[in-house]
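Can anyone check this?
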Amino acid sequence: RTFSKHSWAPPMAFCLLTKFTRHDVKAWTAQLCSKRHQHPRPQCFIQRKRNKYLCVEASNPGGPRGPCVGVAWLQRNLEIVRVYDARGCISETFDTTDSSTCSANYNAYLEGHIPGAVFVNWLSDGAAWQNRDDSSPPGGDGDGSSSSSGGGSSASREHVFRTRTLAVVVDADVYVPCFEARGLSTDRPVVVYDIGTGMIAARVWWQLLLYGHPTPYVLAGGWTSWLAEGGNSELYEPCPLKLSSVYDEEPQLHYRARPEEFRLAATRTASEGESTTHTVAVLLVPEPISSVLDSGRITNSSCPDALPHARCLSFPSLIRACLANKTDGGSSYSSCTGIISDRDPGGVATWTSLVLGVERDALAHFLGEALGGIPVGPCSRVRFLLASPHDAALSACAVGALLYAAGHENWAVCEAW
């Protein structure tokens, strides 16, 4: 309707007579929506599909390296990721017959955590203790018995930690409601952190990878680095109803090995024609603290009689062997101890520092040399089966993360052997 100059109209009526098209309304709506966005475009994720690596704009420096992200990257993208607090403790004299030797530190979470972080109990959320005497780990076919090579009884006496194992539950009716209440969804990356060593965070990362999440990550340096680099801390615990989401990804069970598969690889000699396609069993064993300060060479620990062809070494020796190939000789990492989850990790070389400090191809070469000259990388056809019963598979998951960072996809963690 229009008004003539002789008709009555309010003084401001003529300002409403401008004709707007639907294109103008659409442009205004887009402008209003863009102002609601919390991050500039260079810091936005441009792809949230199923990718192995998180794709970000090239103008956003400091992006993810393999399975790790830095504190600066997390501070920039804190509002568009899901953060899991997995702080806990595991004793250096870990024994699965005594559950008190490991714990989840929920009290530390209540005293302060990364803003928006959700606490994940690495011992009970999607995982459960299983008695090896009468049941196998969830999702496996094993009966927990010893190998038929005749050395099973002696192995049981030498490794009493075989009696119980912490196994991930792969039943969707169990883990889906648990992690949906913690905000797990495929359209948001997940960053897991612990006190700083990355060992417990590596297990939760592997657990999410096993559940089929496309973009799980570990915060390099964990809670200690977050505070050291000026990160904020909050006491607020997010409401589960607010975080609830829908998660319908299929589990990626090839990242998990059965005990029978591990024992077969550890007792079977690869033929000449299988030199580049065989399966290698890697058993990570404890290392005394006194031997940590030795030279950066692999410690050839003795393997159980039941696993004659397994590659046995300690996780700290693997880290030292990789760092020894660097130009600095690894001198600044001589105090690596591997698993110290509730102490000050200052000066300790974690696997996350190795991922962030070494390029992918170089890391693949270093890992191959440390594992005895086995080819590692995207072109390798070797399948690695990783086990570390002495620390609830924490070391095995960390080695799996190193292989993942090196571009080697054919690996699996065996929680018991």
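Reply from J.R.: I decoded it. The chain has a mean pLDDT of 75.
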